[in-house]
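Something for you to look into today, if you have time. Could you write out one complete protein record for me, on any chain you like? The space below this message is yours for that.
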Amino acid sequence: MPDRLSLEEYLAIPYVLDVAAVEGDDGQWICRVAYDELPGCISEASTPLEALDRLEALKTLTIVSRYEQGLPVPTPRLPLRS
């Protein structure tokens, strides 16, 4: 993989999605979704679709911001080979 991908290439990376049902502060169950490889990319909402929509917007914002600031954009690690 080259040292620096284009912004479009970073935005097209299929990050691993972590999904969990968690109990909110009010005792109601909510959906938490995250891209663990991207710092701060966590979203919670009452429905999975709403949480995912928020997460995708946050992912785009995070990648664009890091790219424009010249900061490294984390990418998923390659799978282990046997």
